[in-house]
Amino acid sequence: MKAVFTQRKCIKSVLTYGETSKPTPADDEVLIEVSHASLNPIDWKLFKILQFYPFKQIVQGKDVAGTVAAVGKNAAKFKVGDEVYSYLSYTLGGGFAEYAVSNENTVALKPGNMSFAEAAGVPLAGTTAWQSLQLGEISADKNVLIIGASGGVGSYAVQMAKSTGANVTGVCSGNNVELVESLGADNVIDYQKQDFRTLPGNYDIVFDAVGKHSLSACSDILVPEGHYITTMPNVKSFFEVKKTKSKGVSNQQNQKAHLISASASAECLEMFAQLSETGQLKTVIDRHFGLPALEDAYAYSRTGRARGKIIIDVKG
Ligand SMILES: NC(=O)c1ccc[n+]([C@@H]2O[C@H](COP(=O)([O-])OP(=O)(O)OC[C@H]3O[C@@H](n4cnc5c(N)ncnc54)[C@H](OP(=O)(O)O)[C@@H]3O)[C@@H](O)[C@H]2O)c1
């Protein structure tokens, strides 16, 4: 099958488009003929690390949408021909290929009203968004601030928070204010014009989807016992999260800091399909790249400016 895999060239590894062997599903796995995949920053972050190891060919890519091509003997949830999407269960993924395997517990039927390209955007970023909001105990009466509201994770987080009935404020650059408003945010703060930390705020949850801040930086705009959740630790937030884990809270206002570690689950994907089918969730697609142009897609993601998701067209 055609895939993009890592290949050792001289002292470093490169992404190579070429032929590699088609995976075979294990007993509890599903083989998916990939229509579209999506790129997440974790792909290029891990690639940077992988370059230091002399490894065999590895196919990355955590998110796919496609059609079930075969099922393992204990994988009873799906049949050949089902249109599905998946947060791939292998650590490095395997989605940047014509075929990928996933444990059936991380596969769900594709939302009926989403294209394969739109569905491919959802799994990892959507799961991160939802599980982060859950760490913050999201509910209808909560005030939520989402930093990085225009990115892959943030664009789903705004919509998912709104779907619970919460009041949502998004933070993004001026270029993306209209986009974040269109996702349903009640308020949008342009961080190029205003520092959200100096504005009056009374948030129950600050979700830092781009991991740029810390609990101490946001403490004044959080209610006592409020939650700060980050996707990426920095020196400050690392210790705040550690303190919350050991003492239950991180400071005198009983505020808590959390680091999300997204965990793939079919239940999340099933719930996202319902949200999509009831008009509460859509995928914002920034750009499409063909599979042979994956290196360009990595370079674009590295800029940190993607608006919504970067989609990889595997089937063309
Ligand atoms: N811990 C986990 O389990 C987990 C899971 C998924 C992702 N992550 C991490 O979460 C981060 C975000 O992922 P993603 O997929 O959302 O990335 P992404 O789509 O590449 O994020 C790009 C977005 O970030 C926004 N942004 C950049 N700097 C900003 C700032 N200072 N303030 C507000 N917005 C800013 C940009 O908007 P503007 O151009 O408007 O600034 C852009 O729309 C990545 O570091 C990723 O590795 C962690």
Describe it.
By secondary structure, the protein is an alpha/beta fold. It has two domains: 2-122 and 283-313, Medium-chain alcohol dehydrogenases, catalytic domain (Quinone Oxidoreductase, Chain A, domain 1, Alpha-Beta Complex); 125-259, Rossmann fold (3-Layer(aba) Sandwich). Helix content is 27%, strand content 30%. It has nine helices and 15 strands. The chain has helices at 41-50, 116-121, 123-135, 152-163, 177-182, 215-218, 235-247, 266-277, 294-302; strands at 2-9, 12-19, 29-39, 63-71, 83-87, 99-103, 107-109, 143-147, 167-172, 187-190, 203-208, 222-230, 256-259, 285-290, 309-313. 51% of the residues are buried. The chain binds NADP nicotinamide-adenine-dinucleotide phosphate. Residues 40-42, 45, 124-125, 128, 147-148, 150-154, 171-173, 175-176, 191, 209-212, 231-232, 260-262, 301, 304-307 line the site of NADP nicotinamide-adenine-dinucleotide phosphate. NADP nicotinamide-adenine-dinucleotide phosphate is lined by residues 40-42, 45, 124-125, 128, 147-148, 150-154, 171-173, 175-176, 191, 209-212, 231-232, 260-262, 301, 304-307.
